[in-house]
Amino acid sequence: xxxxxxxxxxxxxxxxxxxxxxxxxxxxxxxxxxxxxxxxxxxxxxxxxxxxxxxxxxxxxxxxxxxxxxxxxxxxxxxxxxxxxxxxxxxxxxxxxxxxxxxxxxxxxxxxxxxxxxxxxxxxxxxxxxxxxxxxxxxxxxxxxxxxxxxxxxxxxxxxxxxxxxxxxxxxxxxxxxxxxxxxxxxxxxxxxxxxxxxxxxxxxxxxxxxxxxxxxxxxxxxxxxxxxxxxxxxxxxxxxxxxxxxxxxxxxxxxxxxxxxxxxxxxxxxxxxxxxxxxxxxxxxxxxxxxxxxxxxxxxxxxxxxxxxxxxxxxxxxxxxxxxxxxxxxxxxxxxxxxxxxxxxxxxxxxxxxxxxxxxxxxxxxx
Length: 368
Fold this sequence. Notes:
Layout: E1 2-6, H1 7-17, E2 32-38, E3 41-47, E4 51-58, E5 60-63, E6 65-70, H2 71-80, E7 85-91, E8 94-99, E9 102-107, E10 126-129, H3 130-138, H4 148-151, E11 156-162, E12 165-171, E13 175-182, E14 189-194, H5 195-204, E15 210-215, E16 219-224, E17 227-232, H6 241-244, E18 251-256, H7 257-267, E19 279-284, E20 288-295, E21 298-305, E22 307-310, E23 313-317, H8 319-327, E24 333-338, E25 345-349, E26 355-359
Helix pairs in contact: 1-2, 7-8
């Protein structure tokens, strides 16, 4: 087996595919990238048993064959080479790499030891613009739970397609993000895709491409230009997100997102990793959104203007959860809806229903 390729083309592929390589595995082949040469193309595959990335590039001077190369070592070697053509060849399980005056010899693993990746068979093709998928993931991924032992399926996102409406939901027990988009896709499905996998999908998305999505019983596939990303689906019961969203409210506050974030940042100066007191808010119909915080290191107060309808509200919440929601709103203004001091704060856009963010309040201690 042999082939020749440009150093930078090869490095880009290795960098992307390596993200699906297992850092620690009892199967040595999973710490490598499977390379298969056929005709004038080289196929690169990485798989950690949870998600995988594959792609192929055009090559020259090729001889067909396959081998698994250690991902980190091979990538480091290619990264160190001069800007020139790289010649890759094998002699048994020995991998020979040469570029200008640089020559390396490393040990490979037979491709037979690399697990066969799941493939797209009879799954229906769903085509969605890259910008829509990118926005939907970005506006929800922050709310995915990161505790695998306690959170189970909520370490993933629910992707629900029904009646041409694609809904993506993330929840971690303290907040929830729901993003909806009308799509011209008649098929229905409901799957849970791991958050870690979707973070990798984000890295592969280019703004000038449509994304093809395929869903099988156990896997989701994303075709992103020259790359195919596949992820194992999570199994279990996802939260009933529709019933979790408050349907009424006693107070609405229309706020400027930038003003709110800056005010929250100032108030949160007295909060640190060891002092996790919540921020208290008083929303006054006169048009003032007052914030305060008190920890053993000090007290802070700030306020900003808001257009308020309804009753006076006093509520406390985690500053980071609120800031995360506001930063991911991707709009200049949002509406905050309040029901009571113990009900979730609902954050929605002013001109559409494309997203709903919920932030759970923190119970305030009785002040003496």
